[in-house]
Amino acid sequence: MAPKHMVQTLLRGKEVHRLEVRTAVAFIIGPLFFVIGSVLLMSKIGSGAALLAIGSVFFTAGGWFQLEQALLVTRGLLNRKQRWGWCGIWCALTQSIGTVLFNMETFSTWGLPTLNGTPWLMLEVAPNILGSVLFVISAIFGLLEVGHGRLFVIQPHHLGWWVAVVNALGCLWFMQAAIAAIPVDLSIAAVLDPQVAIRATLLGALAFTAVGMLSLAECSEDEVKS
User: Fold this and answer.
1) Which DSSP letter does residue 112 get?
2) pTM score, two decimals?
3) Over residues 86-115, mean pLDDT
4) Which of 26, 130, 170, 177 could share a disulfide with 208, CB 3.0–4.6 Å?
5) For the chain, what percent of residues have pLDDT higher than 70?
6) What are residue 183's phi and psi, to 5 degrees?
7) Whole-angstrom Cα distance, residue 131 to residue 110?
8) Alpha helices in 12-125 (DSSP H)
9) Taking a C-beta distance cutoff of 8 angstroms, is the pair 62, 23 a contact?
10) How far is CA 154 from CA 45, 141, 212, in A?
């Protein structure tokens, strides 16, 4: 799709009751909270952790809406084997579970800032790593879905392809953040590289904001083409 048409699709009026519109909006608002929260954490001003926790709620809402869409699509498939063999349902399911794990991690970081030891490992480190792994898995399923079973395809004129690719970048940055936040000392909750973790979270959040914008534009793609 040409940039001109992409802008037209984004600016075209949307019906808020549509699941895909609500999904896109949630995936714009949530990452924006992550962007602002990450900037505050890097600047060491304000309550960045609180914004990350709030943003994670919108991520979860978007994941739930996305899962609802996938479940609606599966009703049109012929049998259970086809339903659970479809990449779209696995993409939505793994991402949705990942967002719930990020809820656990971000709310613990916000509400229990002095946590350390085993509780910190279980409430923050483990959910962050598992959530990031699930996000990467969801990105793979998303790429397979848009590529009709192929992982690496190039379709720059297809909005869905851009959504899948930019989403994959966001997931990889979140994975980088999780790796940088691997514990080096449980007793004081020290991690490998906190600054890299925050910067990677910021980059991932920017990517997911772009995904939300692209998804919102995709909601009107057929209308503009027609």
Assistant:
1) -
2) 0.90
3) 95
4) 170
5) 86
6) -65, 145
7) 17
8) 19-43, 48-74, 80-84, 87-111, 117-120
9) yes
10) 42, 16, 20
